[in-house]
Design brief:
3 strands, 4 helices, alpha+beta, globular, three-stranded mixed beta sheet, GMP Synthetase, Chain A, domain 3, 54% helix
Length: 112
Amino acid sequence: MTTTRQQKVSRLLQRELGDYFQKRGPEMTGGKMVTVTIVRITPDLGLARVYLSLFPGEGHEASIEAVNHAGPSIRSEMGRRMRHQLKHIPAFEFFLDDSLDYIDKIDNLLKD
């Protein structure tokens, strides 16, 4: 069960992280397009789990590892951007969102 505050902070983080990855994502991931699909935040607003979708589809593990390695710098950039909206910026954990791959697999199976 998520509270209204969690939902508002999640939407705010998703919008700001999406803008950040639109500008700086390709240089971090080796030219891949990065989309922030879901942001889930803990009830104490201390940790945000961010799910990323990457295109094109090979080498996801190395890209997610590179983004996780840059996590502290991303957090400081979010702090600079959202200093007037949030008092504390949560720590980030980045995960691969493979739902598009799963949908594509199901679609291919249905075509056969």
